[in-house]
């Protein structure tokens, strides 16, 4: 059993104030495989104090952008060298198939390299207006950033929030999800080796109701970035208002994949399966609503059900399609929604049960409901499990209406060879990302965020720097 008995605060590994430990369960077999120290409010206070001192009085802000760039680049190199270990830790803590976790870990350094390249290109503008005035802007870091990550892609989320905030010159206190804290602690080890000055990167593991709430409400935190459930974000908004800290939220999704008859149907079909069930459906970007034109609906459904029944479920360290849910609560939520679908009258065409050959672990069969009415809860609410609604539509107008009929607006996909239609759909779908003839293409260069209840702000790309900086206007009277 692995024991993580320290928090990373002020450049040092320190014991938590509670002296308590949290059990970390392997979702593939329901066994405790690690224990992690439980940080409390006092530990968050110490981490924020350290981050504040590092920002206000430390060498981080005084460093040249070249020096900061080199540290970020070194971090990327260390992540690259440790990709296999990081992937293994993520699979153990949240059940993601190792082959997927490894692919993500191998891509992970690109965020560090990209933002290392941006760190020395953050600048203001000169604004010409009157001859006797010189007007310019400065883009300055916010200060102390509190970052809270979710349990479904813990390594990627921690990397995104750290690399963006640090590139902009901020200091960070990271609080990972209670059930998946290991990868954050492993990143802290690498941050120490990379040479970040004391207090620039801090990691406090703990529970949301204690450590998390303290970070959200802390008066010395200038910015909160949170990835998680929309309902949780609504509560955080009220708590965070005590000092009017800046907020950015990456929240839930109920994304549509819209398939027209003229599409490359082989590619659309593969996407509709893969990008609905990958990660056991535990990703807000996944296309869990598959909208298919009535002209091809019957044949598509038949083929889809057949393919889904071929998907493999099992040990995430083998070459399976789906691993377990990340924790028992999410498994129960998925099972509840399957029952809701049946009660609403949806037709269960595949799955819907736990695999009979897997006695231990939070597994469930990939599940498909067909002929789903868009008003049903399974078609409107985020399930966060491998449950797909197949929905027929008659024309472009109806497809747009169905796509926009939910409270979320994170991502969407459209499959058609008609370029004009593709651009009309992209314009009219209310989502932060619209993929045309592809799906789930998210990279370090692609701004990512939601409309409606899917969040505020953007991650990735140059746009993310705006979330972590202030703009200061300076006006000089040249005659005085």
UniProtKB/TrEMBL annotation:
Active-site residues annotated for this sequence: 250
Keywords, alphabetical: Oxidoreductase
Pfam family, one: Aldedh
GO MF: oxidoreductase activity, acting on the aldehyde or oxo group of donors, NAD or NADP as acceptor
All residue ranges annotated as the Aldehyde dehydrogenase domain in the record: 13-474
Protein name per its UniProtKB record: Aldehyde dehydrogenase
Protein species of origin: Metabacillus arenae
Family: Belongs to the aldehyde dehydrogenase family.
Stored SUPFAM superfamilies: ALDH-like (SSF53720)
Lineage: Bacteria, Bacillati, Bacillota, Bacilli, Bacillales
Recorded superkingdom: Bacteria
InterPro entries noted in UniProt: Ald_DH/histidinol_DH, Ald_DH_C, Ald_DH_CS_GLU, Ald_DH_N, Aldehyde_DH_dom
């Amino acid at each position: 059993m692995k024991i993580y008995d320290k928090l990373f605060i002020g450049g040092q590994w320190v014991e938590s104030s509670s002296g308590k430990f949290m059990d970390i369960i392997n979702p593939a077999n329901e066994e405790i495989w690690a224990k992690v120290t439980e940080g409390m409010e006092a530990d968050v206070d110490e981490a924020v104090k350290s981050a504040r001192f590092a920002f206000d009085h430390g060498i981080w802000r005084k460093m040249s952008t070249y020096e900061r760039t080199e540290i970020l680049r070194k971090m990327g190199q260390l992540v690259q060298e440790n990709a296999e270990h990081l992937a293994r830790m993520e699979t153990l803590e949240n059940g993601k198939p190792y082959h997927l976790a490894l692919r993500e870990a191998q891509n992970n350094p690109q965020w560090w390299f990209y933002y290392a390249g941006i760190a020395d290109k953050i600048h203001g503008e000169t604004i010409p207006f009157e001859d006797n005035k010189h007007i310019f802007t400065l883009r300055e870091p916010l200060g102390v950033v509190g970052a809270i990550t979710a349990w479904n892609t813990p390594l990627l989320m921690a990397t995104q929030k750290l690399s963006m905030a640090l590139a902009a010159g901020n200091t960070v206190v990271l609080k990972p999800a209670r059930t998946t804290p290991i990868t954050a602690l492993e990143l802290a080890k690498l941050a120490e080796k990379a040479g970040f000055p004391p207090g620039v990167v801090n990691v406090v593991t703990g529970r949301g109701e204690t450590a998390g709430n303290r970070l959200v409400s802390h008066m010395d935190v200038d910015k909160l970035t949170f990835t998680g459930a929309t309902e949780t974000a609504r509560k955080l908004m009220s708590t965070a208002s005590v000092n009017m800290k800046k907020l950015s939220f990456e929240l839930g999704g109920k994304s549509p994949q819209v398939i027209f008859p003229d599409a490359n149907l082989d590619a659309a079909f593969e996407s509709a399966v893969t990008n609905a069930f990958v990660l056991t459906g535990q990703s807000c970007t996944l296309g869990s609503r598959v909208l298919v034109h009535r002209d091809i609906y019957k044949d598509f459904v038949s083929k889809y059900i057949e393919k889904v029944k071929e998907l493999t479920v099992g040990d995430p360290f083998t070459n399976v399609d789906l691993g377990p849910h990340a924790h028992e609560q999410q498994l129960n939520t998925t099972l509840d929604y399957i029952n809701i679908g049946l009660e609403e009258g949806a037709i269960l065409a595949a799955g819907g049960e736990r695999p009979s050959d897997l006695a231990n672990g939070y597994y469930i069969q990939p599940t498909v409901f067909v002929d789903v009415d868009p008003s049903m809860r399974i078609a409107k609410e985020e399930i966060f499990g491998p449950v797909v609604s197949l929905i027929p539509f008659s024309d472009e107008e109806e497809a747009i209406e169905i796509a926009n009929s939910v409270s979320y607006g994170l991502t969407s996909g459209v499959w058609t060879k008609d370029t004009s239609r593709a651009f009309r759909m992209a314009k009219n779908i209310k989502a932060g990302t619209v993929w045309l003839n592809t799906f789930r293409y998210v990279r370090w260069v692609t701004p990512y965020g939601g409309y409606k209840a899917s969040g505020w702000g953007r991650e990735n790309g140059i746009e993310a720097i705006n979330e972590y900086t202030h703009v200061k206007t300076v006006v000089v009277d040249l005659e005085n």
